[in-house]
TrEMBL record, chain A:
Species name: Vombatus ursinus (Common wombat)
InterPro entries given in the database record: FN3_dom, FN3_sf, Hematopoietin_rcpt_Gp130_CS, Ig-like_fold, LIF-R-like_Ig-like, LIFR_D2, Type-I_Cytokine_Rcpt
UniProt name for this protein: Oncostatin-M-specific receptor subunit beta
Oligomeric and partner information: Heterodimer composed of OSMR and IL6ST (type II OSM receptor). Heterodimer with IL31RA to form the IL31 receptor.
Subcellular location: Cell membrane
Amino acid sequence: MALFLNLQTVFLLALMHFSTYRTGKGSSEYLVYPPESINVSIRSDEQCLDIQWTVHLHNYTLNLKMIFQIDIYRSTLSNTVENKNYTTTLKSNETLQWCWHSVLPLECTSHFVRIRSMVDDERFPESRIWSSWSPPVVSKGQESSGEFHIFPNDIMYAEEDSSVTFCCISRTDNDKIEFFYEDRYMQGIKLSSRTTMFEVKNVAFVRRQGSNAYCKLDSSIDGVVLYVGGVLEEPKDFSCQTRDLETLNCTWHPGRDTLLPEHLPNNYSLFEWFSQKKVNCVHRNWCAWQLAPDMQDTYNFTLMAENKLRKRRTSTFFNVNQQVQPKFVGEISIENVDATEATLRWQIIPNQKNLTFLCQIEVYDNEKGIEYNTSNSEFTLSGLQPYTAHSVRVRCCIASHFWKWSEWNSKNFTTKEDTPSGALNIWRIVEPVSGGYNVKIFWKPLPTFQANGKILNYSIAMETLGKVPKVDIFFSDSDSNSTEKIIDEQPYQISVAAINSAGSSIPSVIVVSGNTEKSIQNIKEDRVNGTRDGIYLSWKPDSEETESYVVDWCNYPWDAICDFQWQKFGSNITSAIIRSAAFQSGVRYNFKIYGLSTKHEPYLLAKKTGYTQELALDCKPEVTVDNLASTSLTLNWKDNCTDEPQYGFFKGYHIYKKPEVEEPCDSETEKQVFSDNIVVCMYTVSDTKQKTFNVKKLQPNSTYSFEVKAFTGGGDSLAGIIKVTTGTHENTNLMMTIILPMALFSLLLIIGLNLKIQWVKEKCFPDIPDPYKSSVLSLMKFKGNIHQAILNTSDCIPDAIEVVNKPEISKTQGLRTILVGNEITTPAYLYLLPVGKDALDSQACICFENFTYCQAASDSGSCSQNQMIPTDQMMSVESSEHLLKVDKDYIRPFGNTPAGEEVSLNYVSQLAPTMSGDKGNSSPNLPEPAHCSEYKMQMVIPAGLALSFPPEGDRPISVASLDQLEKPC
Amino acid sequence: MAKKDFLKAFMTDQGLNSPHLNETCTGSSDFPVTETLKDLPPVTFLQTVSQTVRLIEQKLNEPVFKRMHIYLQGIDNNVCCMLQALLPAPAACPAPASRRTLSPTPTVGSFSWKLERCKIIQSYQRFMEAVGKVLETWGASPGQRNRKRRSLLNVLLGQRRKVRAG
């Protein structure tokens, strides 16, 4: 081969030498093959300018690689629209061809084509020189036809969102042409005097019948229908398979509808490369292909999808033996069916080429499914449930190379009967009758998986366990679940077995004895709480000989046919929730719990009673009120509420107190807030026999509403309601009867005391007269200045103080001041009380008479003789001014002054009530000092002649200050 | 059925219901007009109707005109029934005149196809209007109050009696 190639090269080089084309006048020689016979035509349906040309070749230039440069221009070279380098390897007598797709319809204007060539072969590198351009070849447009046209004409196709170019050609130059796309006027671009180009961008689907584009020239219209379709998608999920190795079925997903009109469908075809066969598909998503199984196993398919606008293709390569989905021929058959076994047989294709299959078998009975696998075309099922309907289904695949499962092939069959397995669940009721016991034996039908067939009847054998052995056997119907027999006092062993056509079950044994029932009376019944799930029971474990526990009850305890039920538990179980679909709310269920000994003898352990859910009682107390007081009352009620099993356990009464005015609940009550936010206080009476209740701590004069309701675990019954208003407070009357008189008495007492005090005051402490208000002053008015009637201390300097009770004074201890005065005929006394306590205690009374103002003395001239002799140094220091600064001086005429001595006026200042005998103090007979526990400060204003009264209106001036007098004390 | 329904439906379907294209649809018609039809004897008239309807059927023998085609066949059948009451078969319903050679059919779905079909439907409707006007003149005697209720067949039978009597 290599030798041949070398010879060929040498031969070509030799030929080249002889056949070089001499270009021009140059001496160099090289290969130039200019294009010849250029032909240009328009393929309107594709808008393609078809360019064909040839090259004159010698035979020895076969397989020469060349480049052709193709220029396409409109009107002038400057308007070049395409410059294409077309590379090819030349072949003998071959016409070269290239199609240029134009955006502008080719009929719209003339297109000129010129071509030049160049050898582009590695063997002749020096020949890479372009030939001269060929003369231009024109493809004439219709612009000079003199006819009115639109191009493209009649029909065209475009994909959505693409741009489409139209042109309108007028008959003569510069005609006014209008262009409309779907009645929308569009502006064009003038290509020549007769040709106008219009471009519609992003065309959209409008209708299956296409969008109308037309040119209008005066009344003439020429148009084209543009069919806009979706982009043809590449087929997806292209695959092929066979069911029988005779026909291949290829499927794919074609993608979205292109919405092209029905007469422009998308075409699909299958091409197989090895056999070079092609099939046009009728359907858009599947195609059938006839296989030649003996000729070909491997296939290489190409699926081609095409429409007017686009072509798509996709391929698949496979071995047909690996893409087989088997299928069954007919139904599967079931043979040799007995109680626990059955044999399945089936036939499956393709059966050519010794293909092996894997088959999956699924067997279902009522409860479960079991799966088996086999590579055979038959399979024996074993371990089936006797007398049971079974469903079986089979599917297969190719074992050597899984492709797909076949469809399921199903069939139903029923196995034959077998002897019952297991033992019956039996229980009993023993009721004493005269001379023995009535025994009811109950059993539960065997479940299907134990019955193993149709139960024909039940055999019951009763054997005495006493001294005289006796066996009694009888049968019960298949649809019965109990039997009844009267036995004597001795215990019996009862055996029950189920019988079907294949045999009998293992007998179930129970011992019946009257002793068991006797113990029932001694066991107290306990209450139990139920839930929605059921009623919870528990019991104490019994002796080790207990084989199991049994709980029995009636589903309808109020009914004569109570639907007796029982449930067995293992010896290690001591509690259970008893559930039954028959359980209802408001029904009291009674349970008996038995232990079952190893000798099959039951004995009672406990009795329980309870509800799944209690209901409220259907009764209504009638309420009355007694002993209504302001803060308490007694509620009485009558009712027909009883502890009936239809509702719940009667637990007592609830008494709801609803005050009209909200008040807090006390400690004896429980606060209840109703849904309407009403707060009530609830008393609980736990004794169902108690029909009265004392309500205390009420507010007086308040209104309460009381509701009495019987309650159970299910809630309250209807309410007996009473509204009560409490009375006013009892103490009010008491207060009215006691406190008011007391108050009156107290008032009277106070008044009396006050009067007494006034009296005493008047008697003992009369009001101190105001000198300024004295009547004396009125008498002095006519005398002149009233101020002169009340003298200032400065006006009169005392000169003497006479101590009247000299012996007493002398005896008084602690008296600091002793006033000594001259003897006077009608003395007026000025008492100085000692400051010290001792002085008072001593009951010493110091009286002194101030003669300073004693007009009588003055008049008599004795005043000058009066002397005040301080006995105390301190007092002696006190000037007379001190005495004159007494805050209050009182002027009072001496009432007891003798009439004859009217010249003498005494003013007495008092701090203590004068004793009764004081009135006669003015008399020479002075009372005993012991009776003078007070002092008097007296100011004596002489009514004498020499005394000059101050003008009226002037304040009288005190003549002595008590303070000043006291100080020394 | 309203006589214009087919035209309106076709123009709507094809997007021709624009002012410019409406005018294009209303071209001249090759079918006989009222003036021609009213002078024809009844049998000739009915035969003309039958032939014209059959010609239209031929022109509109495309899937898109399936409903209209059935409608035209119904009219043709009715006319033939009436003719057969007047004339013995097969002369009653002659085939369309062969002289009317069909012009080359444009590509289905093309613009020229749309316009041409539009013109045919328009011509058909004009022709049927003319037929209706002629039929209204039949049996319009002054004494007949309820002439509209009188069936066309009775009219034709009356015509036949007149012909035979004459």
